[in-house]
């Protein structure tokens, strides 16, 4: 009796089995690629890419990162080794059928110039035999998803779009058949910095909704740190120098090559990865608009604080009120006239980074900035002390240097003299600029 299995036997069946929505793991096992008699472009590479994550292949030009990515969808055939996608051997699949269920986005979009936006997006669904109504519905759905109004853009040609709009269409085309895997080869490299940053943010938003498995190739460290759930830093021949989360790589670089590639200032880069919601916030004295002035005066005195934050009925920050504002007053706090120093200029969201918090503190009239959580409700405050403590925690997570670690020049690293780093100097200067006591006074 033949053996039966419920496991899908093709990527098409796998996508249909999972509704085509969720990512699948990718395994590269001993993968090598040689071109002629030259040294291998990819040399015995083994790595696992978890399902539903963005994994960035980061390295210098010529290290083999694009070759590695193109072997996943068999645009380049491996010389040896195995690549499993959702547990299925890529070499056991028909190449064309495999590629129709792996989205592919390249630099400058690669749109067909003689086709409309709708025609470009519809290519893979048409190859898969979708009817016109279903295809048109999917085109409009994807245009909405990438932020392009269908009625305005579906009948345009690529030449009528900006570079950023073309790249959005390229992403929509890659997602057309709802593939579990998306390959992105330096897709934003040719765009201006503002458009590039906007599309990076858009990709993170889309990934939050879709949870695809995304392999993203770049040589831009900041882009890798911003987008990657994990980063594989590759050396010559796609040798993995370090593979881990951005936080792990910044806090503990594997060797001098990684440190040099990251470019220094790792503490400040970590601030750009750390969210305000992930640190211990300062809790200011708070008051509702209906609280009694006399009671608030006592609470400020007991706390040794000069200021309280006033919240509305939904716990959203309204203004600051100080002891001087309360002197001689009575009745509800909300009835007090606004003081000259009570204005709240900036409220951070809990999803803001600590780097954004530092910028807000440097630009604010006072060195304490309220933080709002869901629906704008107050959850605490950020001060320079908050940031300093976060930097200290980062340093404590760092392990001692590995024995024998050398610099890029091959010489041992200089001994620790106890001198402050550039990061700590910048943070300390920010604090001293506003005086040492004001953060606690609020």
TrEMBL record:
Q: Where is the composition biased (Low complexity)?
A: 404-433
Q: Name one Pfam family in it.
A: ABC_tran
Annotated InterPro entries: AAA+_ATPase, ABC_transporter-like_ATP-bd, ABC_transporter-like_CS, CBS_dom_sf, Gly-betaine_transp_ATP-bd, P-loop_NTPase
Q: Which residues form the ABC transporter domain?
A: 26-262
| SMART domains the record matches | AAA
Q: Does the keyword Transit peptide apply?
A: no
Top-level division of the source organism's lineage: Bacteria
Q: Which UniProt keywords apply?
A: ATP-binding, Nucleotide-binding, Repeat, Transport
Annotated segments matching region Disordered? 392-442
Q: Which GO terms describe its molecular function?
A: ATP binding
Q: Which NCBIfam families match?
A: proV
Instruction: Tell me its family.
Output: Belongs to the ABC transporter superfamily.
Q: Give the protein name, as stated in the record.
A: ABC transporter ATP-binding protein
